[in-house]
Amino acid sequence: MGLLNFIAWLINGNSSSTVRAWTSDSIDIPPDAFSDAGGAATAEVPATPMWQQAKAQIASLSTIDPAFSEVAFLEQATKTYLAALQAENDMNPSELGDHATAHFVDQLTQRVTQWQSAGLVRHVSDVRLDSPMTFKVSVDGLQQLITVRFSGQALRYTADDSNCVVTDGSKQPALFTEFAVFVRPAGTTTPKAVGAGAPAHCPSCGAPVDPGVAVCPFCNTPLTGTGSNWQIDRLSASPYT
């Protein structure tokens, strides 16, 4: 072998070995690294957004309660939520009356007792709400539950009653998101008039009454048959607590 042929052989031989050293034969490549669109079946399926699930759940509730109106419900729920914030500000859970369950009143009463024993005063004001959103609907053999997402801005803080020093929250407006759970007994249905947005009426005197009121304010007749008594039961920063 001549010198030139030897050099050519040396160059060609090393080049080939170098190329082979970096081929995929010597590199661990994931099996799906080069998969095409057909391999998408192995990917995780995106979860259905909660608001879409809620729409389907509302449709299921409507089969049980044909006169149920999400618009009318959210209007009532917003009024009840604002009443709960007012009761928190006034440190007076009893003013909620029949708009809250005993569980909710007990929980707020415990918080008020803690504030009072520590010499603190609760402040909730300048509440500005965004449009509420139905987050979850659940129906079982005992009750019907609807979780509503409330968001907005408010002054919401606790301060020392003697020197006004803030111990929790801020005196500056702050954004917030809360989830309120509203409940009513299983089998409850909405009167057609209430579902259409009209007020409920006392069966005795005919006076209009707010949904959820247990006794007519005009003639004191029990109104347990109004059927649209959604009560606030829980309030938290998470929909899962």
- The SSE order reads HHHHEEEEHEEE
Largest sheet: 5 strands, antiparallel
Main structural class: alpha+beta
Shape annotation: globular
**In percent, how much strand structure appears in the residues?**
25-35%
Return Rg in Å: 32 Å
Helix count, DSSP H or I runs of 4 or more residues: 5
How is the topology of this model organized?
Elements: H1 3-21, H2 50-64, H3 70-90, H4 102-117, E1 120-129, E2 133-139, E3 143-160, E4 166-185, H5 192-195, E5 200-201, E6 208-209, E7 231-236
Antiparallel strand pairs: 1-3, 2-3, 3-4, 4-7, 5-6
What does this protein look like?
With 241 residues, this protein is of the alpha+beta class. The protein has a domain at 50-192 and 228-236: Nuclear Transport Factor 2, Chain: A, CATH 3.10.450.240. 31% of the residues lie in helices and 27% in strands. The strands form 2 sheets. Strands 1, 2, 3, 4 and 7 form a 5-stranded antiparallel beta sheet that branches. It has a two-stranded antiparallel ribbon with strand order 5-6. Strand 2 (133-139) and strand 3 form a beta hairpin. The longest helix is centred in the first third of the chain and has 21 residues, at 70-90.
